[in-house]
Amino acid sequence: MKKHMYFYAFLVLLFAACGSKPKTQITKSGLNPEKFDSIIDGKQTGLYTITNSKGVEVCFTNFGGRILSILVPDKNGEMKDVVLNYDNLTSLTSESSDYGASIGRYANRIKGGLLPIDGDTIQLPQNNFGHCLHGGVKGWQYQVYDVIHQTNNSLTLSYKSVDGEENFPGNVEAFVTFTLDEENALHIDYEATTDKKTVINMTNHSYFNLTGDPLKPITDHYLYVNADYYTPIDETVITTGEILPLKDTPLDFSTDKKIGTRIDEYDFDQLKFADGVDHNFVLNAKGDLTKIAARIYSEETGIGVEVYTNEPGIQVYTGNFMDGSAIGKKGIPYHKRTGVC
Question: Topology of domain 3-205, per CATH?
Answer without folding.
Answer: Beta-galactosidase; Chain A, domain 5 (2.70.98)
